[in-house]
Structures are given as structure tokens and as C-alpha cells.
Amino acid sequence: MKVQQYQQGQPCWIELATHDWDAGKAFYQALFGWEADDMPMPEGHYTMLQIEGDDIGAMYQMPEDMLALPTHWTVYFAVDDVNVSAELVKQAGGQVIAGPHSVGDAGSMALCTDPEGSRFALWQGQDHIGIKRAQEANTLCWVELACRDTAAAKTFYSKVLGYQTKLADMADFEYTEWYVGEQAVGGMMEMTAEWGDAPAHWMNYFAVDDCDAALAKAKSLGATVCVPATDIPNVGRFSVLNDPQGGFFSIISLLDPAA
């Protein structure tokens, strides 16, 4: 499905910062069949990842001043006014790491962290709204916050992005869904003791037609399996992976709601 616009709070862009641009690009192209449009930058390339010419995300080689960070994906959330939203981040106890600043005619952005340190970005689109395809294989379909203080996170993201929340029907643990209007755009789960010292973070989920087949392909390409293929009742089957450079992401084959 083609996407024409985004509302405040909807995930609208994903971006991979990687230690090995060549290897990272080869991995994700082989796994998801993405095309790549490489745009030169002073320190390498900014690559638009595409399906049939439509942008669905991006990746870039991490510069010297970022090499202390692991390879990672960043999710961008659409906002109506990036300056207002960045100020709300600070008022709510988060930090603005970079920006707000314009990205040419594409739009304006700010890179932020919430009070627990989870990184995310704000995007006020101008000529580039963000991801151009949705509700199809190999595109972003869900984002999920894993954190230790879910009550504080509800307060923070409701203030910054305007979210409403709803508890999902999960038998074994509490799972919160983030809503923009009537649409669930993501979720949140509490990090328990079994997570160890893993930091709070946002996780991207990419839709695939067959979770087990995609998992096997990812493993053959050098990915590490963090969570094996697992069924979520009434939702689908998912797995959590680390790419060969250490960037984590999830894949999920969703059940057909009409079935």
C-alpha cells in the first residue's frame, strides 16, 4: 500500500547506522530484497532503501564520532512541529541530542532520548514524508518500546507524541499498545530481571510472508537469533535477530484478520 501522509505520532521512518556499510547493505538487500539508492556524503554514503523505487528506510556508515555506539536502527516519529515537540521532550524529562535542524527541503528532525535513555527521532516532513509503503511484506509494520518504568514511559510519550494507550489481551504479561486516534501504531513491554543489563530501547518489526523461511535466510546470511520463531496468539509468528554487524530487529508474519 502506498502511503501519502503521516499523522502526529505515527512511526514514519527507520534508519540504520552501521559500522560496515557495504556488508550491512548486502545483508538487508539479500534478506528483504530492498533496492538501494546511494547518495554520496562526506564520510561515505546515505543509502535510501527502496521497494520498486519507493523509499522504505535508509542506512549510513557511522562516522568516527559515533563508533563507540553499536550498529543500531533508529525509528522516527512524525510530528506537526519539530520545535514544539523537541521542547516537549525536554519538559517531559527526555533529552534532545541533536537538532532540531532542517534536512534540506526534505524536512526537519531532532534526535532524542526518553528519560530511560531510549533513542528515537522526530520528523516534520516537507518534501519527504518518510516511508512510502506499508501493510506489505518487507516493510515496517510495528515498533515496540522495551523499558523498565512503563508508567513513566506512558506519561512521557503521551505528552510528546499525543499517544493514547490501551492494555492488550496478553495472558502471560502486561503489554501496552500506543494509539494514534483509532490506530494502534506500536507497543510497550516491561523489561524484567531476565533482561539483565540490556538498555531500554525501541524495536522495529518488519513484516514477512513466512517467519520461519525469513529466519532461515537471515541465519544463512550471518544473522544471530536472539528469540527463535515464536507464535503470538491471534497476531502472528515472530523472531528477534541481530544482523552481522550487531544491529537488532524483528521479523513477523502476521495472521490475516479476515481468515
TrEMBL record:
* Protein's name in the database: Glyoxalase
Q: Which domain of life is it from?
A: Bacteria
VOC domain: residues covered: 10-125, 139-254
For this protein, the record's InterPro entries field holds: Anthracycline_SecMetBiosynth, Glyas_Bleomycin-R_OHBP_Dase, Glyas_Fos-R_dOase_dom, VOC_core
Q: Could you tell me which PANTHER family the record lists for this protein?
A: GB|AAF24581.1 (PTHR33993:SF14), GLYOXALASE-RELATED (PTHR33993)
Q: What is the lineage of its organism?
A: Bacteria, Pseudomonadati, Pseudomonadota, Gammaproteobacteria, Alteromonadales
